[in-house]
Amino acid sequence: MKAIIKSAVFGLLGSQPFAARRARSLGGTGRVTILNLHRVAPADGSAYPPLDPQIFRELLRFCSANYEICGLRDLPKRAGGDKPVMVLSFDDGYKDFIEYAVPIMSEFGLTANQNVIPKCIESGEPPFNVVMQDFIGRAPESLLADMSIPGFDMSTAGTDRMVMGHRISHFIKTRPMAEQALLSAALRLQFERDDDFRSTPLMTRAEVISLASDHEIGAHSFEHATMGFESDAYVAEDARLCRDYFDRVLGLPTDIYAFPNGSHSQRQIDLVAEQGFSIPLLLEEDFSGHNTSIHRRFSFHAGTVGEARFKASGGFRNRYPV
């Protein structure tokens, strides 16, 4: 019943005329919509499901018709007019960005912001909570039944793989990186029992560098820590490491820093700014502004075209009359 109601709501609110009217209501308000996306690819069995490429294509069709889409650095001069402004912002640096997202964006003449994680580029693996979701979605039932996670009550995980993946991912993300490292060491022994397991691939250094001529490349922290669980000293060092990696290893100096997992404090924003990151990206499920030092983003995933249109036009955060 819940799924039927959800489908009906998104079918109505995400219809082309309804969503377009909601988008137009943002024109002239100074509000900017920054969508935070991650993966775009066909379903691959992970409990961290990607956005279907066809839904992404229809999302861009809707957005390119109803918004002026630009980069983060262009906001001061592009926003504030009669047409609402949008930025497409991706995190983590998955390889499917160049395999699916970039070709589809090219169909519409669009570019995006992509925020990568230096440690993950070097290891070739996504953040550990994503590796965990990959394993939960793809492992044989027998291995899931035997899975043990230190500190986590498996009886609360449920039996649905998507639900289980979400709950365990949340458990991992809400731990300092020192604890996550211990969890990773323990759980990788269990992953090795599945000879066929492979985590979702990331872009290489060369692939990231190749994007920079058309897309804005930013940092998504050095190792994807949830900063609310880390000290200020950790955050300052993380920003320093990011700056060094982008300058020295990638040769792509950047002023963009996306805080992971919607966790940050004003003091941490200031510490990151001291390392030269003047464009902080925050996941706050709200609109941003064209002339502001804070860039708020909406998390974005959709199972249907209607849901994609509805969320792109502000979702339930849009208080303008329709």
What is the strand and helix layout of this fold?
Layout: H1 2-13, H2 16-24, E1 31-37, H3 53-66, E2 68-69, H4 75-78, E3 85-92, H5 96-107, E4 113-116, H6 118-123, H7 128-138, H8 141-146, H9 161-173, H10 177-191, H11 205-211, E5 216-219, H12 232-250, E6 256-258, H13 266-274, E7 279-283, E8 288-289, E9 295-299, H14 305-312
Parallel strand pairs: 1-3, 1-9, 2-3, 3-4, 4-5, 6-7, 7-9
Antiparallel strand pairs: 1-8
Task: List its salient traits.
322 residues, alpha/beta, 45% helix, nine-stranded mixed β-sheet, 9 strands, single chain
Description:
The protein is α/β, with parallel strands linked by helices. Helices cover 45% and strands 12% of the residues. The chain has 14 helices and nine strands. It has helices at residues 2-13, 16-24, 53-66, 75-78, 96-107, 118-123, 128-138, 141-146, 161-173, 177-191, 205-211, 232-250, 266-274, 305-312; strands at 31-37, 68-69, 85-92, 113-116, 216-219, 256-258, 279-283, 288-289, 295-299. Strands 1, 2, 3, 4, 5, 6, 7, 8 and 9 form a nine-stranded mixed sheet that branches. α4 links the parallel β2 and β3 (85-92). α3 packs parallel to α5, α7 (128-138) runs antiparallel to α9 (161-173) and α12 (232-250) runs parallel beside α13 (266-274). The radius of gyration is 20 Å and the shape is globular. It starts with a helix and ends in a 10-residue tail after the last helix. The mean pLDDT is 92.
